[in-house]
Amino acid sequence: MSVADNQWLNKVNWSESGLVAVVVQDDVSSVVLMMAWMNREALLRTVETGEAVYWSRSRKKLWRKGEQSGHVQKVRDIRLDCDGDAILLRVEQLGGIACHTGRRDCFFQRLDDRQWVTVEPVLKDPAEIYHE
Amino acid sequence: MSVADNQWLNKVNWSESGLVAVVVQDDVSSVVLMMAWMNREALLRTVETGEAVYWSRSRKKLWRKGEQSGHVQKVRDIRLDCDGDAILLRVEQLGGIACHTGRRDCFFQRLDDRQWVTVEPVLKDPAEIYHE
Q1: Which end of chain B is more exposed for a tag (fewer CB within 10 A), N or C?
Q2: Is ipTM over 0.90?
Q3: Chain A interface, mutation test: which of B88, B99, B117, most A Cβ atoms within 10 Å?
């Protein structure tokens, strides 16, 4: 089935650069793990494989979450918001680590008296996660 | 205090158009309520007032959430992600309705067999929420 055949993909309000914002939430704990971006192909592959695939804006390529780290996200639920420009993924986070810093989630800096304070521990050294 | 004086604002990785993505989560239920955008002034006002202020990309102006509906968001926690381009707000959602459609949250369309299916009820008729 080609990308063009997928009517449901046309319901997404893709940005001028062909992307949609994706909020990723742990399906068990409800912790918000990260925010990422998808293009049509990333969303299609996510649905086809049941594992999260994103578009890396910095590397300008598709990125299967966990391809290097093993921290794959098994997709449990996919939601679209009212104006179609944001998606919410509920996932099972393999390894319990979503962030490339080795933390549970990416939102580990809390604003405290007008300073960003790191409030979550590193669970695994990134050097161990991303070894050659 | 002027916007320029706020060093913590410079830690945010503002987009070319001066915005940062904001994920809004209910502080009690952990439901992801909506996604929105802030510019520097919106974030500053949010911090100063303790109530969520966003930048409306469609109307191109600041927008205090609830200014018309009364569905104000009292901010309980503000987090910044690892690469600084997404913020997570945990809020108390007054009225229990975050979406302009009158639903609890904006992510009410679930992908089910490649169709977006509305799975959350309207709690209050928008005509009642946004009366003149």
Answers
A1: C
A2: yes
A3: B88
